[in-house]
Amino acid sequence: MGEASGRPRLLLTGDASARPIGLERALARAGFHVDETPGPAGAPPDALLTTLRDADPETLRQLLRDAASEPPRVLVFAAQDPEAPAAALALGAADALAAPVHLPELCARIAARIRERQAPSRTPYEARIRNSLRDLVDEAKTALQPDEIALALVRRLQRALDLAYCSYVITRPGDDEGRVIAGLAESRPEPARLDLARYPEIGEAIRSRRTLSMPDTLAGGAGPAPTMVVLPVTVDEEVAGVLLMRGEPSAPPLNATQLELAGSLAEAAARALAGAPARALTPLTLDSRLEEELERARRYSLGFSLVLLGVDPLPEYAATSAEEGARRPQELGTRLRRELRLPDFVSSYGEGEFAIVLPETGAAGARRSVARLRERLPGVSAGIVAYPHPAVTAPDDLFALVEAALELGRAQGGERIGVAE
After folding, report:
1. pTM for this structure?
2. Has residue 416 got a pLDDT over 80?
3. How far apart are CA 73 and CA 402, in angstroms?
4. Domain boundaries, the chain
5. Residue 420 in contact with residue 383, Cβ under 8 Å?
6. Domain 134-281 architecture
7. Average pLDDT for residues 112-118, to the nearest whole number?
8. Which residues are CB-neighbours of 418 under 8 A, at least 6 positions away?
């Protein structure tokens, strides 16, 4: 690491006028060897610290275009812009802070980024979460509604960290309960609210702002309960909620790097949710989602599709208990959410049926989406209705057409997809 003395070498770059007062002195006291010019060829620094006035998008893109192949780069912004760190992280920065900067914290973060880069086993997780953060920020700035941002968060975390369970709960110090506004589980229903008296670890994590563990009593089943991580999500010094996460039983516990990056992803989502009205943070029903999609399509001259999937029962489930049989639709719902795009909406519809809303997708695009799903899910038939449609003026019209289209698909051979004409 760094010089022969063992001190980590830090290359200080960027706008010198944007440096916090006392920066160089704090770095030296923290044990860094600070350079302002690149060293000899073949001797890269252990980390890069770049100071900027603001988060100009083009400057960030140019600066971070090679972030994956260079030493970890930490950015410090002189502007008091809470969105600047998220923008930098989304483009590949190892870490980022906006003014006012607490210099001991900055030094600790730089040291942590150096340690992580020197632990190769962690870098795949880092890359996956960074990609997830970039996707979430991009989606949040475009088409996602508040409730969808929370769902995007848990989807991205579940995929990136191979979680068996993940949910985002809105709750603050002093609350008696928490609202689960998004959650994904492999084989269990998701409660809408949590009585915090039953889960004192959640209240303690909020009070202490520390990541804690607790038994996952929500999982049910025989034997000792698996361990769930409770990660408080803090925005502007206020706790906005908690992430509840649990890996697969055979997976190792989430490490510090994964937890820190999950926290960064959750903070980006929490900032996007901060200004949303309370009603927008209630999970959408299929009816309300279709009403919103119809209004958006009419207002902006857009289209969308409603898909109704029918899943045939598999023979291996025929002889199972009622409890095990009921678990399959929940598993299928989780798999569908994993396979579809972030803006897509999935809801159970009837016994063995799922409704999917595909924003800004016509009939041809919906057919391609169903074809991909059929490659992964056996025994699936589908009905599709695309809007605008001459017979559709209200959600009930969509339901009638898509149910008829599903019956048409079930009666067919081959791809088993019916489309409402």
Report:
1. 0.45
2. yes
3. 51
4. 9-118, 134-281, 286-419
5. yes
6. 2-Layer Sandwich (3.30)
7. 79
8. 381, 382, 383, 384, 404, 405, 406, 407, 408, 409, 410, 411, 412
